[in-house]
Amino acid sequence: MPQYEKPALSTDQQIDLLIRRGMAVADRALAKRHFTHISYYRLRAYWLPFEAASVDRSDHSFVVGTELNVVIAIYDFDRELRLLLIDAIERVEISLRAKLANVLSLRHGPFAHQSDAYFSDRQRWQRNYTELLKECARSHETFAKHYRSEYPELICPPLWVACELMTLGQLSRWLQNIRAPSVRQAIADEYGLDEKVLVSFVHHLTVVRNHCAHHGRVWNRRFSLKMKIPGKKLAWLSAQFNTLNDRNIYNTLTMLAYLMGVICPASNWARRIVALIQATPCVAVADMGFPLGWENMPVWQKKSWV
């Protein structure tokens, strides 16, 4: 087994190494500040596309014209993109909590989540329910404490309380496991989507959200978990997606732009995405899955679908 022999480098040595490999560094003091607060290894993911093609890429040399300030601009773009994603995901998650609680409690009562009769997979329901009980027991939220003190006889609070304690991942698992497609469709109807599309997207969104929450790169990432693209139910929306390059962030952003138009049109979220891209011309939107002419598509122009 080969031994790892690379030494630790100071920030000045890191900058010198990049310069030797062909990266232009216009302001060394500014570069040193960047490398003091952003690790070399973290930034490497953003300059990797600028490395020159070779048989084994062992020399890590850069294509002519590569500049550190462009790499930093892409890094900052990715950070701003994650913040916009978190903004939209929060809106979707909170909306979904409300709709799931409302539909299930009106159909099957406020404690429908305590019965496996309304869920497809009993073992999955049991895991979800056990996890929810733990959340309810350890939560320090004022409303959770209130239900524990005022209703000590309750094993678990009613749905409208329980859903507020679910993470996005837990919401996704509960939604997937609902037995009756008609119940899932009643939830999806709020967003004008087919229930299979909504279930798929929420599952996909848990992966995107985790990358954002842990400050992971998203701008040119290829996601392992794809989302289902809307079909005939929303034919006009289906035409907005990229079906040939469907593992990048573009399709995620497109669905979020649509959902934000339904949930919170006043936020003008889609136009904020457009403005961010226009403000960072060095970012290759094709690496994000954006098709030609995307900015003229209705989903990026309108504010509301209601």
Which tags fit this structure?
54% helix; globular; single chain
Describe this structure in words.
The protein is built from 13 helices and no strands. It is globular and about 70 Å long. The longest helix has 41 residues, at 68-108. With 306 residues, the chain is mainly alpha-helical.
Beta-strand residue percentage: under 5%
What is the helix tally?
Answer: 13
Helix % is 40-55%
Radius of gyration: 23 Å
Element-by-element helix/strand order: HHHHHHHHHHHHH
What general form does the structure show? globular
Largest sheet: none
Q: Round the mean pLDDT to the nearest integer and report it.
A: 93
Low-confidence segments, given as residue ranges, are none
Give a count of the beta strands, DSSP E runs of length 2 or more. Answer: 0
Structural class by helix and strand composition: mainly alpha
What's the end-to-end separation, in Å?
Answer: 61 Å
